[in-house]
Amino acid sequence: MYQLPENDRLALAQRLVSLIGVAAILALTACAGGAEQTPMIELTLDRPQGNTATVTLGDGRALIDVTDQGGINGLNVRLVEGEWPAEIVVRLRLRGLERLEIHYGDVTLATGRSSNDSPDPPLILSVVDADGRVQSASPSADIYYPDILKTDDGFDITLPPHFFRDNYPSFSMQWIDFYRN
After folding, report:
1. Residue 86's domain spans which residues?
2. Which of 72, 152, 160, 175 has the smallest count of CB within 10 Å of its CB?
3. Ranges of residues in the chain whose predicted pLDDT is under 50
4. Is 181 inside any structural domain?
């Protein structure tokens, strides 16, 4: 049986170790490249004293849970890393929703919920045009309408489909509770 000289065996072993190392790096890179990046979302409240805002991520959804004791406040949400989940729901733990404004890019959506059986206020869409003028109207397309669901402990507000059409880095909300303190 033929044996390689000692120098050739050492060189072959070094090449084999290098080849295994490169294969391991390629395998790890492929695994990391295919993994979805969890978004990192930063939350701040306009009036944080005694109030809370937390985000829970899962199944392509972000649930932002807000407790506001005063009834007049604002939430600022910024995507720090990754991509927005497919659905964003803001849970406002309020008794009433006299006024709600959602801002992103040059768009402002303003609406609210009736405190009794009367009709809800209409949704008003405001957009800042290229000349800096604000244009307001009632939107003609459902793509602008947030879904606002009354729950036992407040309101679940799902951002409208229009928010996801462009790559907005942030959005904000301001609200007024009918029963504010």
Report:
1. 40-176
2. 152
3. 12-13, 16-34
4. no
